[in-house]
Amino acid sequence: YLGELSARALTKTRGIHDAKNPYPSPIQNIRELFVFGGERNCIHAEFNIEGSGITYQHGDHVGLWPSNPDVEVDRLLFALGLGAPDRRTAVIDIESLDPQLAKVPFPVPTTYETVLRHYIDISTVASRQTLGLLAKYAPTPEAGAALATLASDKAQYGSIVANGCLKLAEVLQLVAGNAINSKPSSENTSVWNIPFDVIVGAIPRLQPRYYSISSSPKLHPTSIHVTCVVLKYESESSHRAPAKWVFGVGSNYLLNLKMAAHGEEAPFLSQDGVESVTNPMYAISGPRASYQGDTGYKAPIHVRRSTFRLPTNPKTPVIMIGPGTGVAPFRGFIQERVALARKAIEKNGPDALADWGQISLYYGCRDENEDFLYKDEWSEHQAELKGKFTMRNAFSRSGPRKPDGSKIYVQDLLWEDRAAISEAINEKRGYVYICGDAKNMSKAVEDILVRIFNEAGKNGVDELKTMKERSRLLLDVWS
């Protein structure tokens, strides 16, 4: 196995495509959604599922199976003394010594490089437990003592490893006195004599990254659309480690695919004299180049079912709150209603939507001209839905401000529209959907809903709880 995710993938036999056997889906369209030249990226990707047997519904999630970036694979291979070409490609077989324990979490036989690239999560922040386990294999007593300290001292671990977002190989380099912001090589990386089975036992399996599907099968039966903001931020520096860029594994894998599709270069080293990764490179051609075709690339995916669904009756009012990429499932929701509207109008004439409930979308982003996702699509949908679809937008950087000068966010628009929202929920039994950031936005929106219920003479906290229990308030949020 050189990265194949299942026996069927290796033998190319047909079968059901699910989490145990992801489908290598041809990418039929992949493009940048933010204005070109900005600091941030947001990728729109369309995965072709024609002939795969995969089906989906609006509101479902798609699991994307990324690999680890080249630089992290190299870093850990060199730290383990496996960086030489003949060592990294050496074939290995791993088996569980105790039949009572879980079986090996990935297919074997395979190679050292394949395990680190495709099968285990070497890109995650190193855990204290793992560091404690590996201290005895250090190349010097000083490195072993430093690693043991990071494992046992919670405060030091927090400031250096957790806040610094350091992966296992970076911690091994750091405590051995190696520079972690240089391109890893045998010359600049100390070797740790850690048995490979210890590494495999300590690091969890590389998991799929899940994204809300941003299309409806009623308009796009043979493709699944994904809207993904690319995760890239700076870590906190400490007295031991400088600040560095931190990259989300799944989103930067998609960014690599977008760059390849458009013939863009993904530089490894920044040009200002400081050696650091500006865009991590991935082996997007896949195992045995099986993800690279004549017309483009493929990526392994599967669908995860969700309960995040529109009410079946279009007469029920719907309130959707989704700033940023939180708008993704609501693009699918609107497409679902557009398909239904076309059928209804075809059957019953131009007034077929007269008794439909109002569909309200509350969306927010920084700037109308920089990161307004699918800006050109919404007005077309509004026209097709004959005034039944309204959209309110909060632009935190370019939009109007409150009287005190503070920014306006989606929750402020909800409060402005509280009379209409109260009527839709309390009198017309409407549904509310929240998608996006769980830590701040979703909490702020729930607080506003409580205030709206309180103003209507109800117990807001109880009302919110009841709506959740009855699946009239549904959340698709992430931290």
Write a structural description.
It holds the Pfam family FAD_binding_1. InterPro entries: CysJ-like_FAD-binding (IPR003097), FAD-bd_FR_type (IPR017927), Flavoprot_Pyr_Nucl_cyt_Rdtase (IPR001709), FNR_nucleotide-bd (IPR039261), OxRdtase_FAD/NAD-bd (IPR001433), Riboflavin_synthase-like_b-brl (IPR017938). The protein starts with 6 loop residues before the first helix and ends with a strand. The protein has helices spanning 7-11, 70-79, 85-88, 112-119, 128-134, 141-152, 154-162, 168-175, 196-202, 249-261, 328-348, 375-384, 410-416, 418-427, 441-455, 460-469; strands at residues 23-32, 42-48, 61-64, 91-92, 110-111, 209-212, 223-229, 232-234, 245-247, 298-304, 318-321, 359-365, 389-395, 431-437, 473-478. Helix 11 (328-348) links the parallel strand 11 (318-321) and strand 12 (359-365). Helices cover 33% and strands 17% of the residues. A six-stranded antiparallel sheet has the order 6-3-10-1-2-7, with helices on one face. Strands 13-12-11-14-15 form a five-stranded parallel sheet, sandwiched between helices. A two-stranded antiparallel ribbon has the order 4-5. It is of the alpha/beta class. It contains 16 helices and 15 strands.
